[in-house]
Amino acid sequence: MSNKCKVSIYCTAYNHEKYIRDALDGFLAQKTDFPFEVLVTDDASTDQTTSILREYQQNHPDVIRFFHQEKNLFSQGINIYETVMYPNTRGEYVAYCEGDDFWTDPTKLQQQID
User: Fold this and answer.
1) What are phi and psi of 5, to 5 degrees?
2) Beta strands 5-13 and 36-42: pairing type?
3) Pick from 77, 81, 3: which is nearest to 41 by CA?
4) Which terminus, N or C, of the chain has the lesser number of Cβ atoms within 10 Å?
């Protein structure tokens, strides 16, 4: 993927091992006529969320960009969007979906851009 894309999807996760695959699969299922990226950050999960995110990043390195936090930023009052997501954004537009949520419509992004 080039350094620019149309949409950056922001996904934050913390102990979402039961749900994160559904979120990521919903992003990867998007059918668009433009490039998009997924910026996903794990805020120092203590379950298997981190290993699942690493697996997805390895299998989809052209789409998924994974940022792992060694210490939980939320508990320190640090805004993960301002410190991690915004500085690494390549997209012209931003879409949000938390790691314990998911998209069911594979044309969601295309409809919003249209």
Assistant:
1) -150, 170
2) parallel
3) 81
4) C
Q: What gap in Å lies between CA 101 and CA 113, rounded to an integer?
A: 21
Q: Which two tokens stand for residue 94?
A: 């931003």
Scan for tokens 């996760």, then name that residue.
13
The backbone torsions φ and ψ at residue 31, rounded to the nearest 5 degrees and listed phi first, read -105, 110
Q: Which two tokens stand for residue 62?
A: 């052209």
Torsion sign across C-alpha atoms 59, 64, 69, 73: negative
Task: Say if residues 113 and 32 touch (Cβ distance below 8 Å).
Answer: yes
Q: How many helices (H) and strands (E) does the chain have?
A: 5, 4
- Averaged pLDDT of the chain: 95
Beta pairing partners, 95: 9
Q: Which amino acid is at 60?
A: H
For residue 93, count other CB atoms closer than 10 A to its CB.
15
Please report the pLDDT score of residue 1 as a whole number.
42
